[in-house]
Amino acid sequence: MEGDVVTRLHPFFEQMVQTQEGIEFWYARDLQGLLGYTEWRNFLKVIEKAREECENAKYESIDHFVDVNKMVTLGSGSERQIDDVKCTRYACYLIAQNGDPRKEEIVFAQSYFAVQTRKQEIIEEHIRLIERLHARKTLDESEIELSRNLYERGVSDSGFARIRSRGDAALFGGHSTQAMKDRMGVPAKKPLAT
Prior knowledge:
By secondary structure, the chain is α+β, with helices and mostly antiparallel strands. The chain has helices at residues 2-15, 28-34, 40-56, 89-98, 104-152, 157-171, 177-184, and strands spanning 18-20, 23-27, 65-73, 79-87.
């Protein structure tokens, strides 16, 4: 049964996403039905609990829950303004966590956000690794260029070591290369930046 809910709800959830200035959001009124709530006032209670949890986690709820008004068309063809809330992905996650766990739609949403959160963690970890490798490559290239320049000017190996140590001290708040190696557990024969 849970598999049926996932198959049924996943595409709808993804279709409901909106984007404004590069930020994804969902309208709470769209989520209401998707998460198994028939009455706005009951769903609004879940949203309020989610806002509180957001604040308890030391995030500004206004950054994730934005109150808006929008026009809807009534059955008669006339329009009326209703309250709604723009919810970030994090807000949707908090709503799912605070929803009624007896609803299979809420169970789906909790599972969906657990998977999405893990995917995002993997992407961010990969980006950090690429940035680290790029920084390391840049450092290697800079050290080669510095070595070449110092060698051409007749600086000895011990002079080069003093220059590197002073650079490390400037970079690490006055700590020597060896002090940083000791602090970080880097063996003496290995370079500090690995």
